[in-house]
Amino acid sequence: MKLLNLSLLFFFIIFFTRSESCKSNDKTTLLKIKKSLNNPRILDSWDPLTDCCTYWIGVVCNHGRITGLTIAAGEVVGEIAEEIGDLRDLVILDWSSLYGLRGTIPRSITKLKNLVYMRFRITELSGPIPEYISELQNVTFLDLSFNRFNGSIPGSISQMPKLEAIQLNHNKLTGSIPESFGSFLGKVPDLFLGNNHLSGKIPKTLSKSDFNTLSLSGNNFSGDASMFFGHNRTTVRLDLSRNNFHFDLSKVKLAKSLVSLDLSHNRVFGELPLELTKLRLDHFNISFNRLCGTIPQGGLLQNFEVYEFSNNLCLCGAPLQRC
Ligand SMILES: *[C@@H]1O[C@H](CO)[C@@H](O)[C@H](O)[C@H]1NC(C)=O
Ligand SMILES: *[C@@H]1O[C@H](CO)[C@@H](O)[C@H](O)[C@H]1NC(C)=O
Ligand SMILES: *[C@@H]1O[C@H](CO)[C@@H](O)[C@H](O)[C@H]1NC(C)=O
Ligand SMILES: *[C@@H]1O[C@H](CO)[C@@H](O)[C@H](O)[C@H]1NC(C)=O
Ligand SMILES: *[C@@H]1O[C@H](CO)[C@@H](O)[C@H](O)[C@H]1NC(C)=O
């Protein structure tokens, strides 16, 4: 009798641990997602006969609810299944290095109200970045880098109140930065827009956004970029390299917080501000511009090489030639 009770107890322990297991409608949804990717080898562990919370690679559950879905590094053929929106408890959606993932981000994604982390990186997703992703009001980290998205950057992204980082770099985006990026609903997120086909002038409104990290490298922006500078900013990393920016560097005030500044390959003119000697720089590059005058001496500035100062109009002084 006692033994029976004990085995009953064990049965219940196992039963309740098992209650963490996959719900059948979630399993059905996941299998639709798998099918929509043409049942790729990386999802071989998604076996209809096993528990999806326990045995399926990339599926994370919390009390039987699917909270994480990571699919990475493999060949797939197909699109993101519409049914992804049925995984209502998803917090982390992280798909990366999926060659053959085509199409767009389906509208059903807006049903994922608990989503905090959204990443589709290194895939072949294309077309415009949909405006409706801004309906994901809990997202703090948005990474759509290394895809084939084209069209302009949706201004509605500025209305996502919890954003901390936006990575749209390495796509085929065109147009400029939306004016709305001068007034984010929440705090100003780190912004990575490098290696797109963005062009034109930066809207003046952007002077209102104090970015911690901003990268616009490898686009075709032109005109003034001095709105990203200023005495009382808290910018730490600023990369404006490989564009067509044209402004007077003598006229900008540098934030004391700057640690990394890359202006290389632009048409920046004027002289180097003396304040550069007061910064704790770990990266600095002003090569291939139209700067002139004496390089301020002191601080960490002379730690950088000739290559970081070269190909300007008439810069002189260490580490370049004497004036
Ligand atoms: C964000 O997530 C929390 C809890 O995960 C949820 O209660 C809330 O409704 C979500 N916010 C929005 C705007 O959907
Ligand atoms: C985006 O690319 C598609 C196909 O590659 C093309 O048909 C479409 O016109 C492009 N859109 C924009 C705005 O460039
Ligand atoms: C970059 O923009 C300039 C105008 O500011 C234009 O003349 C040039 O053709 C553009 N370059 C590319 C590669 O799109
Ligand atoms: C920053 O400085 C400018 C003037 O240089 C001033 O108008 C502005 O209010 C300052 N902003 C903050 C947040 O201190
Ligand atoms: C600075 O830019 C030049 C030109 O693109 C490049 O050759 C050099 O390696 C860069 N230096 C650093 C530290 O990135």
TrEMBL record:
<keyword id="KW-0433">Leucine-rich repeat</keyword>
<protein>
    <recommendedName>
        <fullName>Leucine-rich repeat-containing N-terminal plant-type domain-containing protein</fullName>
    </recommendedName>
</protein>
<dbReference type="InterPro" id="IPR001611">
    <property type="entry name" value="Leu-rich_rpt"/>
</dbReference>
<keyword id="KW-0677">Repeat</keyword>
<keyword id="KW-0675">Receptor</keyword>
<keyword id="KW-0732">Signal</keyword>
<dbReference type="Pfam" id="PF00560">
    <property type="entry name" value="LRR_1"/>
</dbReference>
<dbReference type="InterPro" id="IPR013210">
    <property type="entry name" value="LRR_N_plant-typ"/>
</dbReference>
<dbReference type="GO" id="GO:0016020">
    <property type="term" value="C:membrane"/>
</dbReference>
<feature type="domain" description="Leucine-rich repeat-containing N-terminal plant-type">
    <location>
        <begin position="24"/>
        <end position="62"/>
    </location>
</feature>
<dbReference type="InterPro" id="IPR032675">
    <property type="entry name" value="LRR_dom_sf"/>
</dbReference>
<feature type="signal peptide">
    <location>
        <begin position="1"/>
        <end position="19"/>
    </location>
</feature>
<comment type="similarity">
    <text>Belongs to the polygalacturonase-inhibiting protein family.</text>
</comment>
<dbReference type="Pfam" id="PF08263">
    <property type="entry name" value="LRRNT_2"/>
</dbReference>
<dbReference type="InterPro" id="IPR051848">
    <property type="entry name" value="PGIP"/>
</dbReference>
<keyword id="KW-0472">Membrane</keyword>
